[in-house]
User: Fold this.
Amino acid sequence: MDYRWRYQDDESRDMPGPDVAFDGQADAETWLAEQWPDLLDNGVAQVTLLHGEAEVYGPMSLRPAS
Assistant:
């Protein structure tokens, strides 16, 4: 099973985002660390890490802590 991200808007509604699958959790997290500013600019407010269909963790806000 692959790891992938679920993308959601400010109202926790699923939304489209890059359809990228990763072999490992560390690869998925590294990708997100590089991509989160662009995702936020495109309306993604939070993400959840999935392994297959199971939630690993999230939702996690992409907005910087105030």
